[in-house]
Amino acid sequence: GVAVISASPADPLLVVLFFAVALLLGLIVTLPIGGADMPVVISLFNAFTGLAVGFEGYMQDNPTLIIAGIVVGASGTLLTQLMAKAMNRPISNILFSPITGNGSGGQAIEGSMKEVNALDAAAIMRYASKVIIVPGYGMAVAHAQHKVWEMTALLEEAGVDVRFAIHPVAGRMPGHMNVLLAEAGVPYEKIYDLEEINGDFPQCDVALIIGANDVVNPSERTDKSSPIYGMPILDADLAHNVIVIKRGKGTGYSGVENALFYTDNCRMLYGDAQPMAGEIIQYL
């Protein structure tokens, strides 16, 4: 960078070399980051982009660029801090000690996953008093938010109290699930953040988890050997019954096995979220 600035007139070769080195640095920083941490890195890089624009505005004496760069840099920094706090991990740990998704670490889990079909899942929720739905990235991938809201409306017509619990890092960015549910027409008063609804799970008849994994893993409370130990979670395991809609038996983005899936009160409904929600709707 110093060489590029010092060269007069500008040396095109130095400029190309500067951008090549910058590209290489970006790859070196980003490649080791696991999928679960990638939104944090994206947000951090966005903040750096804003700072670059702000400095450009300073160099060109352009107030518009300075203001735009400060806004982008500040919002990117705040978003990065929010996600790091939600995972209970410092940003330095995310960048330099990333979770690689290889499933290493954590205590061995005993037991087996117990399967349920759509008919039984519909019956359990139809005759429940309180149902809390926990949406995750799997719901977003399957574009199932409209079916989920249709299912919710049928349950409410039957007198069931249905609410949605949102974890700060559910999906790819904070607010991802909120946007999808709002798009489907879910009223804002039915959507609750982690701090607002966590105390209600012990009195909940059914916790319906749709494509979420790491944000409901109870190992994060008890297993100090787990790489995601200490991350705040939704206490779905404390509900009387747990139904998990999941495409397969694989782990989440962190690569850590979810102890919730092996508990006595949990049942697995395998399949994409949209067709599974459609089957539940038919039985309801």
What does the model show?
By secondary structure, the protein is an alpha/beta fold. The chain is built from 12 helices and 6 strands. Strands 3-2-1-4-5-6 form a 6-stranded parallel sheet. The chain starts with a helix and ends with a helix.
Question: What brief labels describe this structure?
Answer:
284 residues, alpha/beta, 6-stranded parallel sheet, 12 helices, 6 strands, elongated
Outline the low-pLDDT stretches.
100-104
Strand content: 5-15%
Give the terminus-to-terminus CA distance. 64 Å
Tally of contiguous helical segments: 12
Mean pLDDT: 86
Overall number of strands: 6
Largest sheet: 6 strands, parallel
Sequence of secondary-structure elements? HHHHHHEHHEHEHEHEEH
Radius of gyration: 23 Å
